[in-house]
Amino acid sequence: MDYFFTALQAALALILNFDPETWHIVATSLTISLTACLFASLIALPCGVLIAIKSFPGKTALQHILQTLTAMPTVMVGLIFYGLLSRRGPLGEWGMLYTENAVILGQTVLILPLILSMTIVAVRSGDTRLLETLQLLGANTVQKIQTIMSECRLALLAAVVTAFGRAIGEVGAAMMLGGNIQGVTRTMTTAIALETSKGNFELGLALGIILLLIAFTTNFILHYLSSTSLR
């Protein structure tokens, strides 16, 4: 018990004294996850709205596939892109493996199905009269997407926040694609795993506390968005 509380005090000291190594790892994690969320959102939000408002063969099957991919293990994403980006892989000449860009790519693909699925659900749960009105007014596809995204903005923002929570807490793809290189690709989750195994429990605990605070903040924002959208 004394060991744990001593480590907890040391962990809090690292946080409150703004230990450079600790906060650099936090900054790297936030940069990677926020960038992945940005790229995934730019693709998934308009595509999700388009899928929701259009009828086409295989739409039901596509939605089932997307729902399945939302639960895809992170190590599976890491394994696939490791094979693609490794030196002998088809994309090996890009030289992306063990870089921040590789981790961003992996996290983007990981959260893309999640944002797509939540966007489709959000649009289908909205007022059906909106689409009918847009059609009567002669709106084109781009105008429909823009208007629907504006009307469903809180639900879509909740989808992005949920995706960020999944990205910031994942470890498999970050470990396999980033290599956990100190000062370059070391994220909070990979650093916690490494430092704890090395016996540096204090740093691992400090990062765990910060990660827990980020998760708490994410859930608070989701709760606020959910309660606001119901008013």
What do these coordinates show?
The protein has 231 residues and is mostly helical. The chain has one domain (2-229): MetI-like fold (Orthogonal Bundle). The chain contains 11 helices and no strands. The protein has helices spanning 2-16, 20-53, 59-69, 74-85, 100-124, 128-136, 141-151, 153-168, 172-178, 188-197, 201-229. Helix 3 packs across helix 5 (100-124) and helix 5 (100-124) runs antiparallel to helix 8 (153-168). The protein is globular. The N and C termini lie far apart (47 Å). The model has no long low-confidence stretch (mean pLDDT 92).
Which regions have little confidence, pLDDT < 50, spanning 5+ residues? none
Shape descriptor: globular
Q: Roughly what fraction of the amino acids lie in strands?
A: under 5%
Which CATH architecture? Orthogonal Bundle
SS element count, helices = 11
Largest sheet geometry: none
**CATH superfamily placement:** MetI-like
Overview features:
231 residues; mainly alpha; MetI-like fold; globular
List the helices and strands and how they pair.
Elements: H1 2-16, H2 20-53, H3 59-69, H4 74-85, H5 100-124, H6 128-136, H7 141-151, H8 153-168, H9 172-178, H10 188-197, H11 201-229
Helix pairs in contact: 1-11, 2-5, 2-7, 2-8, 3-5, 4-5, 4-9, 5-8, 5-9, 8-11, 10-11
